[in-house]
Specification:
Layout lengths: L1 H21 L19 E9 L4 H12 L4 E4 L1 H6 L1 H9 L3 E4 L12 H19 L5 E2 L10 H7 L3 E2 L4 E2 L8 H11 L4 E6 L11 H16 L3 E2 L2 H5 L8
Parallel strand pairs: 1-2, 1-7, 1-8, 2-3, 4-5, 6-7
InterPro entries: Glyco_hydro/deAcase_b/a-brl, NODB_dom, Polysacc_deacetylase_ArnD
Protein name: Polysaccharide deacetylase
Pfam families: Polysacc_deac_1
Length: 240
């Protein structure tokens, strides 16, 4: 009866090893930023898959109330639909990054399609707000050899995360907040979503509410909310 348990144990170790090499904090395929040293009293809220009606604007309103700046990783085809939201993000002092044109898994991309995805999105963002992004986040966190290097050659730093809130499948803001609380240790880059990669208009109501509550809680605990570029300015390009 021991053999099945040994097999399960080996499977668990293999899964853990796979996560270590392919998970968001892995540096296997090139240096990417995932946060400051643990214990640092700074947090970065990051939002993927926008801009998105009406939730991007709702999140911007919450951030404005609390005087907090965040970082938004934008999908190019959505930028084309709502360039005004991108302009508002920049005017309000938030940071923006490239999240590809239509959110493919870059593990399967060719070098040509990767450059096209990034270049087309950067141009769309520039047309919307007059700035080309200097940050890049791969959809699904998917990397393979050459992805981070290509982004770097196009002037972008790869940014991952180390706190996953699972807001894309959450059924309440409390669940999002609980996921965050279990992982936050200071110096963290927090992954949230103001949109959805499958279609424009994805419901992110719970994320809006969780954003408000997370800011209140962690400000009360003495944390400062900063943008990813503000973290990068401290000279640490990755977190082991």
């Amino acid at each position: 009866m021991l053999a099945p348990f040994i097999g399960l144990g080996a499977l668990g170790l293999a899964s853990a090893a796979g996560y270590h090499t392919m998970g968001p904090t892995s540096q296997l395929y090139g240096r990417n930023f995932v946060g400051l040293p643990k214990g640092t009293k700074k947090l970065a809220l990051t939002y993927d898959d926008g801009p998105n009606d009406p939730y991007t604007e709702s999140i911007l309103n919450v951030l404005d109330i609390h005087d907090v700046k965040a970082t938004f990783f934008l999908i190019g085809r959505y930028v084309r639909q709502r360039p005004d939201l991108v302009r508002r993000q920049v005017v309000l002092g938030h940071a923006i990054g490239n999240h590809t044109w239509d959110h493919p898994n870059l593990i399967f991309s060719t070098p040509h399609s990767l450059r096209s995805q990034l270049g087309k999105t950067s141009q769309e963002i520039f047309d919307a707000c007059g700035q080309k992004p200097t940050l890049f986040r791969p959809p699904f966190g998917g990397r393979r050899p050459g992805v981070i290097q290509t982004a770097s050659s196009m002037g972008m730093t790869a940014v991952m995360w180390n706190v996953t809130c699972y807001d894309w499948s959450a059924t309440s803001n409390e669940k999002i907040e609980a996921h965050a609380a279990r992982q936050i240790r200071g110096g963290d880059v927090i992954l949230l979503h103001d949109g959805g990669h499958k279609f424009f208009g994805a419901d992110r109501n719970w994320t809006v509410k969780a954003t408000d509550n997370l800011i209140r809680r962690y400000k009360d605990e003495g944390y400062e909310f900063v943008t990813v570029p503000e973290m990068l300015s401290e000279g640490i390009v990755h977190r082991l």
